[in-house]
Amino acid sequence: MEGIALLQRVVDTTDGVLVNITPAQMSNQTLCTEWTVRDLLNHMVGGATMFAISAEQGSVPDEEIGRLMGGDCLGDDAKSAWDTAAKRAMAAFEAPGAMEKIVKLPFGEMPAGVALNIAIFDVATHAVDLARATGQHVADDELLDVALTMGRQMVSPELRVPGVFGDEQAVQSTASAEDKLLAFAGRKI
């Protein structure tokens, strides 16, 4: 399980969580302590759009990054905004030649395949964040295990700073795949 098929699986998993989020839950606190459910969805939509633009164009204009990472990307329909951003990202990474590109993101230049793996890890982690904040679970342990393996390959000590990833939390070997992924991402579970 890798590449585009894995990204689609993460998108489908996230869709399954989003469909069950009620309007009243949009103000729920998430394990990303600075974000509510709405804030986290906004971040996910902005991030998916940023990854799509990088795969389409090679880089994202600075003014666009500011809008995507700091503005309102959801409008009045969070589920529709996510659907649009996720479809755009899927199409961008599936486009002929996209995976051969070097792309530039706010945290550096990299092969498109590395950017794709970052997106997979990020969205899988946030899907679990959303599930936890809304009383749901992500039951696809295989997907979460793959995302955790990707995270272990990509998250360096330099990225373990407030607002990005906290320190990895201790978790028992018998913990769920959700708990292992969240603990790795620095969530206090």
Model description:
This protein has seven helices and two strands, in the order ααααββααα. The radius of gyration is 16 Å and the shape is globular. A two-stranded antiparallel ribbon has the order 1-2. The model has no long low-confidence stretch (mean pLDDT 93). Helices cover 57% and strands 4% of the residues. It has one domain: Four Helix Bundle (Hemerythrin (Met), subunit A) (Up-down Bundle). It has 189 residues and is mostly helical. The chain has helices at residues 3-18, 37-57, 62-70, 78-94, 112-133, 141-154, 177-184, and strands spanning 102-105, 108-111.
**Proportion in helices:** 55-70%
Average pLDDT, rounded to a whole number, is: 93
C-alpha Rg (nearest Å): 16 Å
Task: Write the CATH fold name.
Answer: Four Helix Bundle (Hemerythrin (Met), subunit A)
| CATH homology superfamily name | dinb family like domain
Low-pLDDT ranges: none
Structural class: mainly alpha
Task: Specify the CATH architecture.
Answer: Up-down Bundle
Topology at a glance:
Layout: H1 3-18, H2 37-57, H3 62-70, H4 78-94, E1 102-105, E2 108-111, H5 112-133, H6 141-154, H7 177-184
Antiparallel strand pairs: 1-2
Helix pairs in contact: 1-4, 1-5, 2-3, 2-4, 2-5, 5-6, 6-7
